[in-house]
Amino acid sequence: MREDAESLDITDVTANWVNAEVLRAGLDARIRSLADLAHTPLFFGRLDYVPARTFYIGRRHVHDAEGDPMVIDWRAPVSQPFYRASKKDPQDIALRRRFGYAAGELTAYEDEHLTDPSDAETGSRLLQAEIERPRVGPMRDIVATIQPEQDEIVRAGIEGSLCVQGAPGTGKTAVGLHRVAYLLYTHRERLSRAGTLVVGPNSSFLHYIEQVLPALGEMSVRQATVTDLVAHVPVRGEDGAEAAGIKGDARMAQVLRRAVRSGVSMPQEPCVVVRGSRRWRVPADELASLVEELLSRDMRYGAAREALPQRIAHAVLVRMEQAGEAPDDRVQDAVARNAAVKAVVKTCWPAVDPAKLVLRLLSDPEFLAEQAEGILTEAEQQAILWAKPARGVKSAPWSAADAVLVDEVDDLVRRTPSLGHVVLDEAQDLSPMQYRAVGRRCSTGSMTVLGDIAQGTTPWATASWEEALRHLGKPAAAVEELTLGFRVPRQVIAYASRLLPEIAPELREATSVRESPGDFSVRACPAPELDAAVVEACREALLHEGSVGLIAADARVPALAVALDAAGLPHLAPGTETGEGSRLTLVPATLAKGLEYDYVVLDEPAAIIDAEPDIRTGLRRLYVSLTRAVSGLAVLHAAPLPPALAS
Ligand SMILES: Nc1ncnc2c1ncn2[C@@H]1O[C@H](COP(=O)(O)OP(=O)(O)OP(=O)(O)O)[C@@H](O)[C@H]1O
């Protein structure tokens, strides 16, 4: 297939050089997509349908010289039974074969005779081996081992939105990315027009997952944080927890809606349009009824502002007709652009600059009081005002939450275009205003919302998926739960789950499908010896194969970096790719979300808890940090552990 693509002669097939360039780029992309990937086999499974028809299943479609299929794409309907068929429901499959590879070499296969009653149902060794395989480098695809409950989510229809609650390591991120790949395959035309977006918590996380999508054969997916999406103003300020909470509250949407319309006023003067020798006069009360009519409509502020001159012009045209003239559309357009009409629009329906409006709200106590009256208390208004009024948009101390407010205003003024599909990962952490910002980018498309209530580490983290989905504008989305854990060893998940009654009492403990119990230790040591003990634990962890993450409270990171350097242990920052030569990452606890390491050394839990504004958020941050380990976890502490973990 690659040779065919390479040997295509496209000289003289296009009419002009632009088309030639486009064709060349398309062909180059195809040749690239057909490159051999070392260690990535062409197929990983085989299905024998009854009656005898055999299909090989792989990451992409492969055909032979005659164009007959040799390997079927895992996303094609024919491949679905590879993930779903069972002895109970064989789905016309007589044999399912899984192939095992080591470094690209075929080393094993495993058969299941789904229609043969004498063939006992046994767990898959290859699946176990895949799950237990040490991790290094970026996240891998799971196409060979997607589980039935995961496959239902991956292949759910594009029409409906879906929300997935899942404990740490149940594969939410993996499933979300494979769902994107599935949707792009199945609805390529539609999504290439409308666009697809994956929203993640921070750039380290996005970097960690970005290699998975091209590995799945997809490149045209945008990845962004919420902050990237709303980058209307330069963010350099920070809010305290209280101000951030209020700015993120859905009531702010009401305040902003009122503020946007606060400049609208009723015309006091008639509008007089002079054309040639004639003057046409629309009285003030008629103008006012036009303005009122537009106010009463559920219309974007900017669209209404464009409609108003047309409405006034229409009133003028009616008068022209009454006077026996026969004006056409061009006359209406000309009247709409008349200086007198423009002047009415300028005073009665002034243009709104989103950033300037929010700047005024946060700088001007009287303006804020007017707009927030009956919505925010006086104390709340006080809390969100900037310490001193900002002078201009460029120099204002914008915070991340402020940028979301500007985005809301922007959408009140002109409609935000909708994408075809949006995947929102670590969704539990968003504020209602952030949910609205993501939701409006998907107003006519569908969403996949992934998260874990127990891992909510913002003071405003959502209390329920129902609430989050309401703010996202997808109240009808189905909520599914993933319960099988693929990452965290049994002992470790059991230990971390002791925190659940305090951080998310309604959630069930995750089960681990991993057979190995995992290395697990908790060590107390005197405070002066903690750094040395942590360095030693890292050294021990590095004796094993795979990646090692040292997770510590953000404030502890500089000291630990010095200690590691002094001990001659090279270490990376999160988001930098681990490899054979550099396997140790020093991870600030606030960036640990979504990441995983084979061995985790966890420094001083008390410091991780104390860094958060309240105890629940602190314990949740600790829960996230405890659940990053694939094979082993060592907890080292000098200060006392929280009571749930102490005994
Ligand atoms: N079906 C599967 N087969 C093999 N590995 C899997 C499967 N599902 C998930 N995994 C692996 O389990 C690990 C955890 O997956 P993932 O990071 O998607 O979980 P998560 O639910 O997003 O976790 P967290 O809530 O901690 O962010 C990853 O290494 C992933 O590749």
Automatic annotation (TrEMBL):
* Any one GO molecular function term: ATP binding
In the record, biological process GO terms are: recombinational repair
Ranges annotated as spanning the membrane: none
Record-annotated UvrD-like helicase ATP-binding domain positions: 145-489
Cellular component GO terms held in the UniProt record: cytosol
Query: What InterPro entries does this protein map onto?
Result: DNA_helicase_UvrD/REP (IPR000212), P-loop_NTPase (IPR027417), UvrD-like_ATP-bd (IPR014016)
**Keywords of this entry:** ATP-binding, Helicase, Hydrolase, Nucleotide-binding
Residues annotated as binding ATP: G166, A167, P168, G169, T170, G171, K172, T173
Top-rank taxon: Bacteria
- Stored PANTHER family: DNA 3'-5' HELICASE, UVRD / RECB / PCRA DNA HELICASE FAMILY MEMBER
Instruction: Provide the protein name.
Output: AAA family ATPase
Q: Which species?
A: Streptomyces bathyalis
